[in-house]
Amino acid sequence: MAVANDPYIGAWKVVEVISLCGSGGQTSLEGTEMKLDEAGDVTWILPEGGDVDCALFRCEAYDLVTDHSYNNDRRSLMLAAVSGHAIVFKVDHPTPQDLMVLTCEDWCILQCQRVPCREPPPDHAFSLARLLGAEMYADLTLTAADGTQLRAHSLVVRLLAPTLDWPSDPLRHLPAEQLRALLHYLYTESLPALAELCRRYVTNVSLREALCALVWETLGCCQSVADQLAAACRDQQQGVETVFGCPGRVSALVRLCLRQVAVGLSKLTLAFDLYGRHEASLDAAERREVIRYAQSRLPLFLGQLQRVLLGLRSLLSAANQAQRTALAARAVSELEWL
Description:
- The chain has an 8-stranded antiparallel sheet with strand order 3-2-1-8-7-6-5-4, with no helix packed on it. Strands 9-10 form a two-stranded antiparallel sheet.
- The chain has helices at residues 154-160, 176-188, 194-238, 247-278, 284-317, 321-337; strands spanning 10-19, 33-36, 42-45, 59-67, 74-81, 86-92, 99-104, 108-115, 140-143, 149-152.
- It starts with 9 loop residues before the first strand and ends with a helix.
- The chain folds into 3 domains: 10-115; 129-188, no CATH class; 199-337.
- By secondary structure, the chain is an alpha+beta fold.
- The longest helix is centred in the middle third of the chain and has 45 residues, at 194-238.
- α3 (194-238) runs parallel beside α5 (284-317).
- The protein contains 6 helices and 10 strands.
């Protein structure tokens, strides 16, 4: 344990890092400043571009332990984090007083130099975010509706939500995602990843609108062809001038029918592909909404496709022998041109 006149208390800057594991990934520690105070707290000042996710920088407390098996009572520096992990360094006595060597077995050696103490840069407002999901001091288990269990701290949740009977697990009816969001709000007084939630909401709304648009365009392709074929069949039945008076008109109408049917099928395929690629980003309720919508529109598409094919067959079967001969000659000439 540190005392007021302990030579280790103060600010130290890592001036050199020697890797003991061969990875060489510890060079990002160079330039880091470590402040050991009399209360047993350790604070870090990282250089620009430092690895903020390094486990070493999550340590917030320290202790100096003396190993009496050495003749000179060699000491160890133990750095501990709230999440429960600890990192132990063997300490070489600072001789001269402004030098210190920290050795962590199988990881690295840190050569440190004493520097004047300075205040760390302003950090985020105080919150209990680091306690979220931490096992240390967690004495409460909350169960979501799907059986997911989340650990919490009874002292924290009772202080922030005193009206709930936390030991009786009052939130067991909530889905896991909502339970996590509620705990996040209790611990931090902020919503979890609000920007990400908004982005996901906008993306999913755009996805649903794109799927609906593709389905409607598919229905529109078949609807326009079915209407034209129905009009041609009515003219044929009423004895007015029909498309058979000009084989080129019949050929153009058939090509239009086939092209629109192909476009409709392509759009339907695009809708299936779009849903398949983004299905994972939709929650269960959104997936059910999309599937229900597709199921309600698919019979309409198949019905319109049937109208197109029946109308095409009815139109061609109403032609007489001479008209069929003219149509066949027209088709042969167009195939030869292709």
